[in-house]
Specification:
246 residues, alpha/beta, Rossmann fold, 2 domains, 5-stranded parallel β-sheet, 10 helices, 5 strands
């Protein structure tokens, strides 16, 4: 009997799917409806055999990528799978997870139940299954040969870069150079220089000549991988407008 974790904020549908997995398995299935609850749940339970994670959590700052990374970093032997509706906007986070994490398969919420159950059964028996055909166009041909979690350290050369990334994550809405200067205490020209310094590394992540807005979007998608390199006591208290804690 496999232990399966489902992380999805569509609780009713997730519980119906859990019932089907239990009936066909039988498996022991746990449903979590919040990314914030993933880490505490993992800390209080033995490792799962499979984590099946949605990508969209509109009520939270975090996304399914954060949940997948948390599972992987806590229990590296747990198999990871994505379940998603496959809307175009999830393409970037899905590629990010596909490149950086050992994703065993990608399941479409629109697929017939038999296809969904078959993909899960294949993952549990062999360790992987082909992504759903409807979602394959949103994925690269294969995981990146160079992109890794460790590479994110190259996006933070020094404390000034960390302050820039922190402001991009914390400011509400689209950040401007002036708002970042107010938030961090850095001079406008310094911020522009920092962006220029990071362009070669950002290009390696598919962002050639990244704008400040593109850097901000990238930071939010990659928060779980950036945070370890930008966290730490600030040099000075922040003064700008910050995102309100949820």
């Amino acid at each position: 009997m496999a232990r399966i974790l489902i992380v999805d904020d569509a609780v009713a549908l997730a519980e119906l799917f859990a019932n089907e997995l239990t009936r066909h398995g039988p498996h022991q299935v746990t449903v979590i409806d919040s990314v914030a609850d993933v880490a505490p749940s993992l800390a209080n339970s033995p490792p799962f055999d499979l984590a099946l994670v949605d990508l969209s959590f509109p009520a939270e700052t975090a996304s399914g990528v954060d949940a997948l990374a948390t599972v992987h970093l806590t229990h590296p032997r747990t198999l990871l799978a994505i379940i998603t509706q496959g809307d175009r906007w999830v393409a970037e986070p899905m590629r990010l997870a596909w490149d950086l994490l050992p994703i065993a398969t990608v399941v479409s919420k629109s697929a017939p139940l038999d296809a969904q159950l078959g993909a899960i059964a294949n993952v549990l028996s062999t360790g992987s299954a082909p992504p759903d055909p409807a979602l394959q166009p949103l994925l690269p041909r294969g995981p990146s040969g160079w992109r890794s979690i460790d590479e994110f350290s190259r996006l933070v050369h020094h404390r000034g870069h960390a302050k820039l990334w922190r402001a991009l994550l914390d400011l509400v809405g689209e950040a401007t150079y002036r708002e970042i200067a107010t938030e961090t205490g850095l001079k406008l020209n310094t911020i522009k220089n920092y962006r220029a310094q990071l362009l070669p590394e950002l290009a390696q992540h598919g962002l050639p000549d990244a704008s400040l807005r593109e850097m901000q979007d990238f930071a939010h998608r990659s928060r779980v991988f950036l945070e370890p390199h930008i966290s730490g006591p600030p040099d000075e208290p922040p003064t700008g407008r910050r995102r309100q804690a949820r």
